[in-house]
Design a protein that fits this description.
about 290 residues; alpha/beta; OB fold (Dihydrolipoamide Acetyltransferase, E2P); Rossmann fold; Ribonucleotide Reductase Protein R1, domain 1; 3 domains; five-stranded mixed barrel
Length: about 290
């Protein structure tokens, strides 16, 4: 009897095994064929040879649409950026780094303002006020009261979604509500105002409305990809309306005179904190450029 080959999705890599679900919902614990080079990631579409007892051999990794590095996951279509109203207060610089990475990797972002049952912080007010006006999708949620979860389920349907954001913002609780997964959660440390990390590996969880959500180790520092400093502003969608006002075509919106972006900040059309976050990331990109030379 010839060996059966099927296509499937890698939903988890753990302990030297690659857990693959095929289009019929069958699950296989697979070992790698020796000829495969490079890492196999959660989110990869693969071809496997089916063996007995729900086991298989992973034969081929199909071409990827994209690949994120922190978390390490492939073929992502939606980046769900979770910030909390409080405990901890939103980190707007981390939010802007994540929004930049979403644009860089051609992944649609959606901002989640979670824990809306708690008293609001100043940073939460800034987030709520500016980012919707700047054209970003934002949903207010509470895993405690259920606020916003139905709307969130509609957005997630059919996507491979990465759940990202600082520790302690309620990512695991949201995942429990959306997938039924029994994720271990821990209370936010009151001493350091950030969550204690509980997740140990990247795994895709099926959504009842269709699609998958990736849970991955929490993080607060994200490495920037290698790019030319002149390219950075192109990933700030709220800058696009004002770049034609710059005197210089190659304006970095940094120390130049007659800069349309800086003028838009003075006029209140771009939030000052958003521009300052751009400058912080720009200086990091410029420092990386000097290191590469």
């Amino acid at each position: 009897m010839p060996e059966e080959k099927v296509e499937g999705l890698v939903v988890k890599t753990y302990g030297g095994f690659y857990y693959v679900q095929d289009h019929q919902g069958n699950n296989y614990a697979c070992r790698l064929r020796g000829k495969i080079k490079g890492p196999v990631l959660a989110g990869d579409h693969v071809v496997i040879t089916v063996l007995e007892q729900c086991e298989g051999i992973l034969e081929q990794v199909l071409p990827r649409k994209n690949e994120l590095y922190r978390p390490r996951v492939a073929n992502v279509s939606l980046l769900l950026i979770v910030m909390a109203v409080a405990q901890p207060a939103p980190s707007l610089i981390l939010l802007d780094r994540l929004l930049f990475l979403a644009a860089y990797y051609h992944v649609k972002p959606c901002i989640i303002l979670n824990k809306c049952d708690l008293p609001r912080t100043e940073a939460a007010d800034k987030l709520d006020d500016y980012y919707v006006r700047a054209g970003f999708q934002l949903i207010k949620t509470s895993a405690t009261t259920g606020e916003g979860l139905e709307k969130l389920r509609e957005i997630l349907a059919g996507n491979v979604t990465v759940l990202a954001g600082p520790s302690g913002t309620g990512k695991s609780s949201l995942l429990n509500n959306l997938t039924g997964a029994d994720m271990k959660t821990q209370e936010v440390s009151r001493k350091i105002s950030r969550g204690r990390h509980t997740t140990r590996h990247v795994e895709l969880f099926p959504l009842l409305s269709g699609g998958w959500m990736a849970d991955s180790p929490g993080f607060s520092v994200i490495d920037l990809p290698s790019l030319d400093s002149r390219e950075l502003a192109g990933y700030w969608q709220d800058f696009a309306t004002f770049v034609d006002r710059c005197r210089f075509d190659d304006c970095l919106h940094y120390r130049e005179q007659d800069c349309g972006i800086k003028q838009a900040c003075l006029e209140g059309q771009i939030a000052d904190f958003r521009y300052q976050n751009y400058v912080t990331i720009l200086e990091e990109v410029m420092q990386n450029e000097r290191c590469y030379r």
